[in-house]
Specification:
Layout: H1 8-36, H2 40-67, H3 77-92, H4 97-127, H5 131-170
The structure holds fe (iii) ion (3 copies).
One fe (iii) ion is lined by residues 49, 111, 114, 144, 147.
Length: 179
């Protein structure tokens, strides 16, 4: 690979190109995750985050156009892996609350990856004196954090408990020993 990232400006561009590709992958994955979800609240959270994600892509496009550079050319390998894990979660589970609990875990991995990426990119933008870009990236970072918290709330307020009663009802692989 050519060593053409030499300056912090180059690095900043790489970071936001990676985020752009990650967000595009997420817009394809979220409708599938919404479709796989059983709980109404979880499905709504995925659908609303899809809308938010479209706005996040617009913010990135705004940054690229202000810098006068192209947005493409970078693949986010990590997001490919995270999306694949989400798909595996769906194929390993039947429809129901155990799957929902797994989908939340997969989605939170995505949000945490994005939080790391946007936190980094926001800080680089500040360093480079790009205050407007820093504000746009901070807005998205806040949305990713809120989404992560919302998923925790959905898990802890109902999905996990319902998944537990679903598990007791069907007698999963933990039943037997000692009961
Ligand atoms: Fe995002
Ligand atoms: Fe990446
Ligand atoms: Fe997100």
């Amino acid at each position: 690979m050519a060593k053409d990232v030499k300056t912090m400006e180059d690095l900043f561009l790489e970071e936001i190109r990676d985020l752009m590709d990650a967000e595009k992958q997420i817009t394809k994955a979220l409708p599938k995750m919404a479709k796989a979800a059983t709980s109404e609240e979880l499905r709504e959270a995925f659908e609303e985050h899809l809308e938010q994600t479209r706005g996040q892509i617009e913010r990135l496009e705004q940054i690229f156009s202000e810098m006068g550079v192209k947005s493409g050319g970078q693949k986010c390998a990590a997001m490919e892996g995270l999306v694949k894990e989400g798909e595996e979660m769906v194929s390993m589970t039947e429809e129901g609350l155990v799957r929902d609990a797994g989908l939340i875990g997969a989605a939170q991995r995505v949000e945490h990856y994005e939080m790391a990426g946007y936190g980094c990119a926001r800080t680089f933008a500040q360093l480079l004196g790009r205050a407007e870009a820093a504000d746009l990236l901070q807005e998205t970072l806040d949305e990713e954090k809120e989404t992560d918290e919302r998923l925790t709330e959905i898990a802890e307020s109902m999905v996990n408990q319902q998944a537990m009663s679903e598990s007791r009802g069907t007698g999963g692989r933990t039943s037997g020993a000692g009961d």
